[in-house]
Amino acid sequence: xxxxxxxxxxxxxxxDARESHIGKTVTVCGWVQRQRDLGGLIFVDLRDRTGIxxxxxxDNTDRAxxxxxxxxxxxxxxxxxxxxxxxxxxxxxxxxxxxxVAVTELRILSLAETPPFEISDDCNAREELRLKYRxxxxxxxxxxxxxxxxxxxxxxxxxxxxxxxxxxxxxxMLIRSTxxxxxxxLVPSRLHNGEFYALPQSPQLYKQLLMVSGCDRYxxxxxxxxxxxxxxxxxxxxxxxxxxxxxxSMEDILELGEGYVSTLFKEVLGVDIPLPLPRMTYxxxxxxxxxxKPDTRFGMEITDVSDLVKDCGFGVFSSAVQNGGSVRGIVxxxxxxxxxxKEMDKLTEFARGIGAKGMAWVRWVEDKPASSFGKFFSAxxxxxxxxxxxAEKGDAVLMIADKNRVTLPVLGALRLEVxxxxxxxxxxxxxxxITEFPFFEWDEETETWVAMxxxxxxxxxxxxxxxxxxxxxxxAKAYDLVLNGVELSSGSIRITDPELQDKMFHALxxxxxxxxxxxxxLTSAFQYGAPPHGGLGIGLDRLVMLMAKADSIREVIPxxxxxxxxxxxxxxxxxxxxxxxxxxxxCITHTEQKEEQ
Amino acid sequence: xxxxxxxxxxxxxxxDARESHIGKTVTVCGWVQRQRDLGGLIFVDLRDRTGIxxxxxxDNTDRAxxxxxxxxxxxxxxxxxxxxxxxxxxxxxxxxxxxxVAVTELRILSLAETPPFEISDDCNAREELRLKYRxxxxxxxxxxxxxxxxxxxxxxxxxxxxxxxxxxxxxxMLIRSTxxxxxxxLVPSRLHNGEFYALPQSPQLYKQLLMVSGCDRYxxxxxxxxxxxxxxxxxxxxxxxxxxxxxxSMEDILELGEGYVSTLFKEVLGVDIPLPLPRMTYxxxxxxxxxxKPDTRFGMEITDVSDLVKDCGFGVFSSAVQNGGSVRGIVxxxxxxxxxxKEMDKLTEFARGIGAKGMAWVRWVEDKPASSFGKFFSAxxxxxxxxxxxAEKGDAVLMIADKNRVTLPVLGALRLEVxxxxxxxxxxxxxxxITEFPFFEWDEETETWVAMxxxxxxxxxxxxxxxxxxxxxxxAKAYDLVLNGVELSSGSIRITDPELQDKMFHALxxxxxxxxxxxxxLTSAFQYGAPPHGGLGIGLDRLVMLMAKADSIREVIPxxxxxxxxxxxxxxxxxxxxxxxxxxxxCITHTEQKEEQ
Lengths: 597, 597
What we know:
Chains A, B: It is an enzyme of class 6 (ligase). In chain A, 30% of the residues lie in helices and 23% in strands. In chain A, strand 2 and strand 3 (51-57) form a beta hairpin. By secondary structure, chain A is an alpha+beta fold.
């Protein structure tokens, strides 16, 4: 049976031991990182969340204590009392490296079996095993650091918005299902068999109702749920920094949002983010970077060469332009050597994988540029093309010819892929706002217009007349905050005019009955005096992942789920008792596993 | 079509207008509380969350603006620009009463229909109507005040625990169902048909695993879910201030907890809570107050008169004692007049309603005490009884004779009922800790021992030997924080010894297979080095309700559910599409409504 702390009280955390403690008697607690038994001398590295301190047992140590120290093994939990003294062999690698604790009392609070992997950041156990034993995985310093960072971000976030007059208000988790966008997780009701709650995809409707309630400025770190087929680095549940403000224009919200990120990065990371943040319209971002979330940490912008090649002898180019598409390219400076012919083949495959019919390229290694389409071009034509693209000797060029909705995103993706291959992305934080998003997106599958943001987003005033005549040209009062090519935040000014809201619902193909059933409480609320309002939501997990320079959001969530939405430590989801189903008035019709489909 | 704020920017919130603003041009926004048209003079009370300011329109007002002001109706949303000036008729009832805004520009941002009830704290609309139009109900000043108070409590809570080294760490909402205590809400899985997640009743297991992970000090304002048959003032979802600490004893946790409430009440309410808080064992609380959550704001403590009456001529008394029960009473000082015979009959009915067979009483109005059992008592016996109880002329006595598990709680409830009738409860905040709870409770229905706290609670060291021989006598390292008779918080030191944990599970009737299936991940975690730890959870909604002096937790939750777990504004739960059920592999077997059963 393990010993207890009875009568002991921790007086120092491991990572905080310093020379100023020398001569003091302290009590430290933690896990044995390792024990080294050198005959008459035993050293123990003791670890807690603050760091590691060395415990020393030697000739002067009480024999019973020494004997006990000799039984210590990795991950035992112990408490040790002793005097802090200078270390004979200083370790400059760790902040506590100049001191050690000469132990006079030792208690073993918990024994430990050998862990299935080493508790260290060098550990290369596979992720499944680490997640199964997440409570051991979390002991690693990098994960401890990430959790602490997330706490600091949450704290700084709440402090900032509190200082700006926002109230943190709780919205319900058991809400009405309104199938829009992603799928809802459903919660069957026991008191009302046959009826269901849904878990919120976001607090969108409630935060708008809080504005109608006169709450003025709302914020919440809100848990959100989406039952999606999980792509890499999505979680079925995630946290959103959610906010909404009344009596404001888009300008006010952007100002507040950028004040927030600048304060946050300064306070938590000590990094200066110059304000105001750059802004770019959706149209500009697409044409320069082929993306509505451009990574602006490097150049390699897209150039349109359609005019130059529209009558050229290369049919792929000329017909793309003549069919209303475009021919565009990017230039990888000085990369003609690195992007070998073989690399170009790989990049062509990559482009095909994301929807292009092919990719044209130029490698200007020697005096004469080599290219995939040279035989269709005269030397003068090639010179003119390269001049137009701004390519010089030593550069490589990648080109796509297709409809714009292929050309641009494919070049956007190639730009990122090439930058990664060339390792030219600097380690900085580049924020920017993307504005003037299209309101509608044409869904080829259902042949209907769908809302690019969501149906509560206000169209730009000057676009309202286009709603009937040219929906595709309607831009929205919507804005995204992008950091290093990642969409961090999405927001908009909302519709508050009940007639306009109805009109937008109709344009999205909703009938009157459907509107009333799904959103009746919202349009009804707008009848009783709705203030102009808008807001945004920031993905907390992604934000912290970028700040921590982590590879995945799973590294910043204490107990994440894997791609098929299972949590490996507790094995959930899991079957439940028949009695539980009976109480809910439910039966199971399928038990197939859909993850492999 | 309503006007917009284009080109305008709010410069002052309504409730903040003061004499220092006189002469300044301001822009204010809000809802029209009321409009008074006095012919050539129009006054508008404009309301936002900060308060009310008067807008004035008179002979000097531009005619178009004056005309527009004449169209204003209650709850219209407007923006007004004008100069702040001194008011001729000062209103000392409100902080802005010395000034008004002479409006030069007026915009109507939203029209409003006549609300179904007046937006005022005097409104006496029934709660169902208020909840259906919750977005209007929330405009009332008292609810705005409650939401602001809750925000302040949440902020002060996080600040306190952050300052004490706690990290706010997120635990999952989609977890494994472990049917213990209350019923779980279940969430069917679409990717794993036939399997379910549960929503957490509390983050108990995860916070213990965070301690095993070396996180040391964890806190979270955690949403919790319990699918119970709703008693008054319970919600299916509620928020818990949840925390856990490593390497501590009970003493450390109590000290931290009381430091928290004292800081909170000082910061948010300006109220001093003297420390240390009083403590009382469970046994003492039951025998003195008949409750494990005694309201100590008033006396009227319970006196045991069993010895005195065990051989008396009144069979109800003597047989209760002879059968191992007791006879006990409370004295309502000076209440012989108020507690008339009719009132005593009502109190007897009340006592019967909560399990007593009857109630004995004495009313000492005249020289000779009148009582319900006088004919069985001699004058001397009565004198002795009243002396033992400490009753004097003018007092009323209520007595119960039964088994202790009836006598004590019934007298505890009568004590509260009488105090309310007599209106003798002072308006103070009385905190106390209740300690040394029994570990086990005997469940008469299932004839098994169940855990009074939960199965992870550590028994007191000296009670471990009693586990097999006398489970009923085992006390736990558990503690409740009680405020004014309400259980605010519940906590304990946890078991960390895997063998002891197994032993407790067995004592609670769980078999090895069941333990492994439900809690295997926990007992397995304890094999790898678990620090001593403990914690507590504080009901945020109840805490804020008491601080706000509100009547119900529904008054401090923005969008609460009613007793049958429905939310009236959005009408949920609700039926869902067949397609949603198909994707989940479920079908509905019952659609009956259980609320009326």
